[in-house]
Amino acid sequence: MLIKRTVIRCVIKPEIVKQNERLVEAVFQELWAESPDGFRYFAIKLGDRTFIHFRYGHRRQASRSQGRLAALAVSAGATSIR
Q1: Where are the domains of the chain?
Q2: From the CB of residue 11, how many other CB atoms can be counted at a distance below 10 Å?
Q3: Which helix (H) or strand (E) holds 54?
Q4: Where is 65: in which H helix or E strand?
Q5: What was the pLDDT predicted at 14?
Q6: Dihedral, CA of residue 25, residue 7, residue 46 and residue 37, to nearest 10
Q7: Are 22 and 30 in contact, with CB atoms under 8 Å apart?
Q8: Distance between CA atoms of 24 and 54, rounded to whole angstroms?
Q9: Would you place residue 9 in the very low, low, confident or very high pLDDT band (cuts 50, 70, 90)?
Q10: Global pTM?
Q11: Residue 78 confidence (pLDDT)
């Protein structure tokens, strides 16, 4: 089965770092509650306002899981304001 991997690196504007932290936290809370099969996510915050997001999983299962997770969709949609 094919594995889909996505790495997103973004430098956040100083005035929205806290907002981005809350969005990342919401993703983890939803993942904890939903426990989607075949989907993994983790994020790293560096000291210079850089966030690195890693998403991976089996291609078919990961696509379905990503589409169902509201917090992940909100986080991805917020990319335009970063």
Answers
A1: 3-81
A2: 11
A3: strand 50-58
A4: helix 59-68
A5: 92
A6: 30
A7: no
A8: 12
A9: very high
A10: 0.67
A11: 53
Single-letter code of the amino acid located at 25: E
Contact of 16 with 82, CB cutoff 8 Å: yes
Measured CA to CA in angstroms, residue 11 lies from 14, 45, 49, 68, 79 at distances of 9, 10, 6, 26, 10
3-state secondary structure of 36: coil
pLDDT for 64 beyond 60 = no
Return the half-sphere exposure (C-beta side, CA atoms, 13 A cut-off) of residue 7.
Answer: 4
For 14, residues 6+ apart whose C-beta sits below 8 A from its C-beta are 49
Report the CATH fold assignment for 3-81: Alpha-Beta Plaits (3.30.70)
Strands 50-58 and 3-11: antiparallel
